[in-house]
Amino acid sequence: MGQKNDTIKPESLDEVIVTGQLNPQSVSKSVVEVKVISRSDIDRQAGNTLADVLNTTLNLNITPNTATGKSGVSLFGLDSQYFKVLIDNIPIINEEGVGNNTDLSLINLDDIERIEIVEGAMGVQYGANAVSGIINIITKKSSRNDWDITAYVQEETVGDEYEWFDKGRHIQSLKVGHNFSENFYANATYTRNDFGGFYDNKQGENYALNDGLRGHEWLPKLQQNTKVVFAYEKEKFNIFYRFDYLNERIEKYNETVSLNENPSTGTTNPSALDELYTNNRFYHHLNSTGTFFERVGYNISVSYQEQTKDLERYTYRIKTRQKENIEEGEYQQRSAFFSRGTFSNSINSEKANLQIGYEITNEKGSGSSLAIVLNPDSDEVTQKLNNYDFFAASEIQVTERFSLRPGFRASFSNLFNTQYTGSLSALQQLSNDWELRAILGSANRTPNYNELYTYFVDVNHDVQGNPDLKPENGVSAFFHIKKKSTLANNTIRLKNKLSFNYLGLNDRIELIVVNQSPLSFQYNNIDRFTALGVFSENEVFYKNFKAQLGGSVQGVSKVLDSQTQSNDDFLFNVQLNSNLAYSLPDWNTTFSVFFKHIGTQQQFVEKTNAEGEQEFVQGETAAYSWMDATIHKSFFDGAFTTTLGCRNLFDVTEVNTTAFEGGTHNGPPTQVPLGYGRSYFLKLTYNLTL
Asked: Which stretches of 254-410 are DSSP H helices?
């Protein structure tokens, strides 16, 4: 039937990884430092989307947007534009680009084997926009069993809000995998994730008073995700095809209600202007790996992806619950053809390995007249960004314990000048299980669609993109000291790591004032950014107890070259995290706690003083802590499992801030939304293996 999975194992101490590697190899032999989130970690946390499992990861901050329903990621003070998300080494398309600016809530984890994270610039291996780091999601493409069938349901409150259909979070999933022969495997997964929104003090869709209480604090959305994988493996030849279709519906109910009073009858016919956003994402990925000439290994992927966002605007008659004056159209569209190929072991030497590779990205995007991106000469703007990259990396075993990896990439584009990136990494293995790693790398970030082509001009606004923008250039340096050890006759296993990091960025793009009267804004390359820090991550395994403990201190300096009063002081932030698990094998039960503390975050912002002059002052975002707790138990030899838990034990919803400037037409926010309060969930899973 099933299998037991409630025993704590030190699996991450020497797991085989693929991210940033010339060939798959163990964590201990990797020149690049790679973090691993295992399948068991995902299951213990009952994580359904990527946003669920990264919330307590050190240095990574999840940034939800209640107005759009999206969740991004911030790393080392840089937002999701600088962070790349991949599935099986393929960047994921979204409505704003390919790989970066990814909405983490759109990535379902039901068929995921593990998650690999690399911090720092990875421009040589993964191209543009991999400035602060990358996440590579590794999917499941094989099974030891003839049949694998997994079905689960998960019910979750949203804060203290829950109803069987309308409120809370309701998830259902079915996955079927089958080995048709010794060489051919396939699986299919369907997941439905219904988030009823977070009301807080709002009153929902059918509230008919004009007092600002209509709608939701967090927008309701329904996601449906279908995935199919076909994999064939024989001797030195492997091939797989993966298809992924996502449909998401986000409902936005306007808080402003028009009462439409009839003086003659004294009655009202309240209405509101509402919106429905629909995302559709298609993902195709064909990959083949193998060898030729007996030793040369190849890994070639071809992918076509498309994501569209449609907008339906309408007048909603609240009393009769009818739609009128419906206006429909395509809001945004992105499509991309991507191909990546690497060829390794082309040098016949035990001391060196040379990998050469290519990447092709043909990206096309458009915005319509219903979107904020407008052009006076056309209802729709369609633009293309084509990149043709060539890269090479070599791993040189200088001595038995010392290895080097230099790398280089050239990127040719139809919009920008040729970009060059380089990297140099070193691994020194010392006696007594000491490891030293030094990683120096560079990466660039290409301007996104809105920065290049936005045209939003009316009587109240003048915000324009800049087709003459150039890519931002980033460089990072990391130094890691790692020690593995055992104590008490090998009953205690330890892994300790101390890391130092530097990240610098030039020509950063900012939206700045280019004309005071009339007030107008434009994107320009004017910013310099520097981050310095130190962090430590530690693991302890003792019998059935596992603990991961970490802490970091990061300082950020930001300078606007156009502002003579810009302050280049470093502002520091402290983070702490822990991941604790205790297993009772006789009960097939694991108790887990996930914790993260983010200290006060500071940022210089431009403000107007009492004399009406612009000056830079230090703003702050208040500190907060996040904690999740779960109980994971299996029954009947693993055939059934239950996960009972609580997210956001400290009941965080938002924190106060003075660290933001106002927008082009709005004042600065005084609070940052982070969560929807303390929530409880129950997940019931059925596993059948034959």
From this structure: none
Output the pLDDT for position 418.
93
Measure Cα distances from 453 to 372, 457, 500 in Å.
11, 12, 38
Distances (CA, A) of 33 to 18, 21, 382, 422: 12, 10, 40, 17
Secondary structure E strands in 6-81: 16-17, 25-26, 35-38, 60-65, 70-75
- Phi then psi for residue 587, to 5 deg, are -100, -5
Residue 369 has pLDDT above 60, yes or no: no
**pLDDT value of residue 664:** 46
3-state SS of 347-414 is CCCCCEEEEEEEEEEEEEEEECCCCCCCECCECCEEEEEEEEEEEEEEEEECCCCEEEEEEEEEEEEC
Can you give the pTM of this predicted structure?
A: 0.90
| DSSP helix, strand, coil percent of the chain (3-state; round to 5) | 5, 60, 35
SS3 82: helix
Judge contact between 353 and 347, C-beta under 8 A: yes
Question: Do β-strands 455-457 and 462-464 pair in parallel, antiparallel, or remain unpaired?
Answer: antiparallel
- Which tens digits make up the pLDDT trace of 534-552? 999 999 999 999 999 999 9
How many angstroms separate the CA atoms of 467 and 453, rounded?
A: 7
Confidence tier at 374 by pLDDT (50, 70, 90):
very low
- How do residues 610-654 score in pLDDT, each as one tens digit? 666 656 677 888 999 999 999 999 999 889 999 999 999 999 999
Contacting residues for 254 by C-beta, under 8 A, at least 6 apart: 214, 215, 272, 273, 274, 275
Residues 6 or more apart from 638 whose CB is under 8 A from it?
1, 2, 3, 4, 5, 588, 687
User: For residue 59, what is the DSSP state?
Assistant: T
CA angle 604, 605, 610 (to 5 degrees): 120
Exposure of 104 by Cβ count < 10 A (0-12 exposed, 13-18 middle, 19+ buried)? buried
Distant-in-sequence, close-in-space partners of 489: CB < 8 Å, separation ≥ 6: none
**CB contact at 8 A, 279 and 305:** no
Query: What distance in Å separates the CA atoms of residue 108 and residue 104, rounded to the nearest whole number?
Result: 9
DSSP state of 27: G
564 has a pLDDT exceeding 60: no
Please tell me which residue, 329 or 463, carries the higher pLDDT value: 329
CB-based contact 449:365 (threshold 8 Å): yes
pLDDT level of residue 375 (50, 70, 90 thresholds): very low
For residues 638 and 48, give the distance between their C-alpha atoms in angstroms, rounded to a whole number. Answer: 20
Q: How far apart are CA 689 and CA 641, in angstroms?
A: 14
Are 155 and 681 in contact by the 8 Å Cβ rule? The answer is: yes
Residue 373 has pLDDT above 70, yes or no: no
Q: What is the mean pLDDT of residues 348-362?
A: 90
* C-alpha dihedral, 410 to 415 to 417 to 422, nearest 10°: -30
Answer whether residue 47 shows pLDDT above 90. Answer: no
The one-letter code for the residue type at 606 is: E
* Paired strand residues for 378: 375
Token code pair at residue 311:
């907008």
Structure tokens given for 675: 């969560």
Residue 372 has pLDDT above 90, yes or no: no
188-201: average pLDDT: 95
Look at phi and psi of residue 53 and say left if phi exceeds 0, alpha if psi is from -120 to 50, else beta: alpha
* Cβ-contact 35, 19 below 8 angstroms: no
Average pLDDT over residues 81-101: 89
Amino acid, res. 462: D
Count of Cβ atoms closer than 10 Å to residue 374 Cβ: 19
In the 8-state DSSP scheme, what is residue 306?
E
pLDDT at 370: 39
Report the 10 Å Cβ neighbour count for 590.
25
